[in-house]
Amino acid sequence: MKPPLFFSLPGNESLGAAIAARLSAELGKLTARRFPDGESYVRLESDPKGRSVIFLCTLDRPDEKFLPLLFAAETARDLGAARLGLIAPYLSYMRQDARFQPGEGITSTYFAKAVSRSFDWLLTVDPHLHRRESLSEIYEIPARAVHAAPALSVWIGKNVKNPLVIGPDEESRQWAQAVAGGNGAPAIVLEKKRLGDRKVEVSAPEAGRYKGRTAVLVDDIISTGQTMVAAVKHLIAEGFPSPLCLGVHGVFAQKAYEDLLTAGAGAVVTANTIIHPSNQIDVSELLAKACEEFVGG
Ligand code: R5P
Q: What is the per-residue pLDDT across 20-61, written as a single tens digit (0 to 9) for each?
């Protein structure tokens, strides 16, 4: 039997090569570009006929990435692919999971339907499951999430002396404890009020007990960065020097990364679910192992 055929959408090539090598998959050649009028052109230069095909496309800034991905998947299906999988290390549209205002769309559900129509399975890293228990509530295909908490924990163990791990809100307490756990470090959470897309107020009422430790803020997503900016400023005012900021997914909307450094973060570190200079935590092995369950290994 032929090995799986692995296509990386543009921008995903380095992570794709690492995952494909671990899977002993064949790296496929794909061209994706824009026509002068802005429409998407996609060509699969490796024949997917009869093959188990994997597409890798992280989905930050999804509106520009999703249509080429969809066209690539539909092309593979059209050319006779036997099975289509999507690895989306960062899975978009997970946050609008309720109708907060009358008339709003529940876009996480609509997005899940669109993905489920074009792919046979989905693999991601730490999706933002806030009001939902699992991906299967909205995805109609087998959907698996792997977790980066152990990798964050290892990074902290190697790089931080005497850490105090701080999660973004009460809901993250267990997750922050899991990140801290491996190092026997204490974990606390922020009290957080989001007043708008870019306006967040935080306090850290439990932090006073742990003065002298290195504050390590951990979060699943750094988007506008405003949660961490507010936390960094608050912790510095409370006497913690240069808190460290660790995120699984560094979305970094607008100047979020620069804002964090300006606010006084000692370092900003992310996993390579979204390629960025802050990447220090590699998820390729995690993804390759989980992928074997879908394609055999
Ligand atoms: C919220 O529930 C998440 O865990 C993050 O705290 C949030 O998404 C971070 O967003 P931002 O960087 O825009 O403050």
A: 999 999 999 999 999 999 999 999 999 999 999 999 999 999
Which residues sit with their C-beta closer than 6 Å to ligand 1? 130, 168-169, 200, 219-227
Distance CA(116)–CA(200), nearest Å, equals: 34
CA of 246 to the centre of ligand 1 (A): 12
CA 255 to CA 229: how far, in whole Å? 12
Q: What would the pLDDT profile of 103-160 be if each residue is shown by its tens digit?
A: 999 999 999 999 999 999 999 999 999 889 999 999 999 999 999 999 999 999 999 9
* Pairwise CA distance, residues 17 & 27, whole Å: 7
Give the residue, out of 223, 259, 274, with the most ligand 1 atoms within 8 A of its beta carbon, to mutate for a pocket test. 223
Residues tagged active-site: 192
